[in-house]
Predict the 3D structure of the following.
Amino acid sequence: NDDQFKKVISHAKEYGYVFQSSEIYDGLSAVYDYAQNGAELKKNIRDYWWKAMVQMHDNIVGIDASIFMHPTTWKASGHVDAFNDPLIDNKDSKKRYRADVLIEDYCAKIEAKIDKEVAKAQKRFGDSFNKEEFISTNPRVVGYYERIQEILSRMGKSLEAEDLADVKALIEELEIACPLSGSREWTEVKQFNLMFGTKIGASAEHALDLYLRPETAQGIFVNFLNVQKTGRMKIPFGIAQTGKAFRNEIVARQFIFRMREFEQMEMQYFIKPGTQMKWFEYWKEARMKWHMSLGMGAENYRFHDHDKLAHYADAATDIEFKFPFGFKELEGIHSRTDFDLKQHEEFSGKKLQYFDHEDNASYTPYVLETSIGLDRMFLAVFSNSLVEEELENNTTRTVLKLPAVLAPVKAAILPLVKKDGLPEVARQIFDDLKWDFNVTYDEKDAVGRRYRRQDANGTPFCITVDHDTLDDQMVTIRHRDTMEQSRVNISDLTAIIKKEVDV
Ligand code: ATP
């Protein structure tokens, strides 16, 4: 809900996770900076993904391709012609909308209206009343639903010029049926390309127009044969990559969920044509398992299979996560056929084929892709972890229950008091642990306040040095989630922490 989402955003700022970009100049819309803790969390998520995808698979290797690519890449990939959002302006309010998002907003409003009617009717008719029946027997509602579905599905496949007038007409009708914007004067719907353009080269006449990559995948496709040959890879094999991508998003209203500069973690799995459904199922399961391994609650994930497919895909599903604003796409799994490699063959004039020794034949491989937004994963982890707990003594505590493996700081070392030689012992523990973990030292304020600060920061362990430590070489270790404390030998600390934070 809205409140929870606001808390997430303010907590992310207060505890040094995410800042608005260029804040002193009032920020830049849909662009964010990761702060001291955020950068660590983001790196840990990236490493967790990389380890699962690259290190754990002897047939998957990682690359790091450039953000700039030859401009023909984007002709071949279809992004120059078809990477568009349909936009519409309201002449009265001078506001600009993404047509599909606007239609979805109308749908949500109509749904809410229907729910109200249903509730009323249910009161009147009791349990025998049925929502589906009500909708399907109400001709006006049915009419809207059918047209909306049809138009949204055409949008998913990228709209033709003649569709755009239809979209405008639908928006005009919906505005009358269910006012949202309050004004009725609309411009035509225009296609707006989402790629950022830039130039390379110093002199105007020799400058080359380039795009900032809108996805990392193409860097993998154009390197497919280089990697296959130099790595002597045998099909099936994968190439993984993490890196920045850029999209000139119009509707940017959900914090780091939809950014103009973001990071993707993608893996393209090259397979034999005809085996794509097997691998589609395989990667659906493997990726869901990866998510489950973080222990953030199975009920917060679901698959959303696509019935409308992009031009390059023959099967696609999203892994959706329950964000504070509802279930939304977190990761996409796409069976991309040989579309990309074939396009690059055509535009480059080079063969991108694989010689299969078993079949004694060459073919252009099919591709199964897994693609997850690092920033979206960050938001999923962060928003899911932030909880307010009622404690027994009628107080509350704010705790960021990050999976220990992802937490920016694994342990805080706290001398009980700032004297009697305790800081020196605590410093020594800090200096020993820092070789293995990102740890912090804190001696300011009462120890209870320091515990709360570390709870809110997501630190899984607090290690307290007290006067007894000087005699028995033991410290108190406190667990963030249970608040349980136990006394352990200093020499056992590394093993205890490792057990929780290593995968
Ligand atoms: P959406 O429908 O939300 O715009 P998409 O279907 O265009 O996403 P893909 O092109 O499949 O997304 O990109 C793969 C992943 O990259 C998405 O699942 C998402 O996690 C991430 N992603 C895409 N666009 C953005 C963005 N603007 N900001 C942050 N992450 C993004």
Summary: The first strand starts at residue 18 and ends at 20. Residues 215, 247, 249, 258-259, 262, 264, 329-332, 371-373, 375-376 surround adenosine-5'-triphosphate (CB under 6 Å). The chain has a mean pLDDT of 91.
